[in-house]
Amino acid sequence: MKQLYKIIFILFFISLKIYSQKQEAIIYFKDGDSIEGYAYLKFNKIKFKVAPEDKPDTWDEEFVKKIKFVDFGFTRTFEYVKLNSLDKPKLVEIITQGEATLYKKLGSDFSLVDKIYNPYDDRPTSSGTTNLNPDFKSQLSSDMQLQPSNPYGNLPDPSVFYYVKKQKDKYPTCLNCGVINAWRKNTSKVFADCDFIVKKLKSDKWIFEDIKEIVEFYNDVCLGE
After folding, report:
1. How do residues 92-129 score in pLDDT, each as one tens digit?
2. Which string of DSSP letters, residue by residue, matches 143-203?
3. Fewest C-beta in 10 Å: which of 26, 79, 84, 139?
4. Backbone phi and psi for residue 104, each to the nearest 5 degrees, phi listed first
5. pLDDT (average), residues 134-149
6. CA nearest neighbour of 211 among 149, 148, 126
7. pTM score, two decimals?
């Protein structure tokens, strides 16, 4: 088991080290302006510069709404979202968007785990895993399965949490937070206005890896009922 964790963290380090390099991006400000340039994410902040030779400026949720990375033949959009009433807005990745939007976040639903390491930069090495909380370690195995937007292949993510927010909601709902992963119960509550989704979840017709499909089904089909 220790060898497995070692391999996992080495793979994370390699893949996310690539992502931490400066990539072509478009930064969108709260006032409606946008600028193209180069950027990377660091500790819930955005390092952005217009030209490769420029020194990057640091931006956060005070002025920025979201940022879109456009390198490597794909796009990834990260938006500042307030996940709860106690914490400041966090950079979360938009997986699918509509009346119900699915977000992906690395770390905790609060800021405690985020202070252990940068969720969008280098991962801790294998030697650092001994100091991690046992619940955090156990979450690795379950979260390894869900990779709907990973451009680097089938590499697992540590402590991946998925949130759904409807347009009327003040805060998004975390579907798989907590020591006990009650994602079916949480998802059924969020989509209680769609009987088809609730029935499929109760009959185990959908699994956690289908969460993106579930949100898309709600937006495309349930809202037309």
Report:
1. 999 999 999 999 998 654 444 444 344 455 444 444 44
2. HTT--TT-TTSS---SSEEEEEEETT-SS-EESS-TTTT-HHHHHHHHTTT-HHHHHHHHT
3. 84
4. -120, 130
5. 40
6. 148
7. 0.71
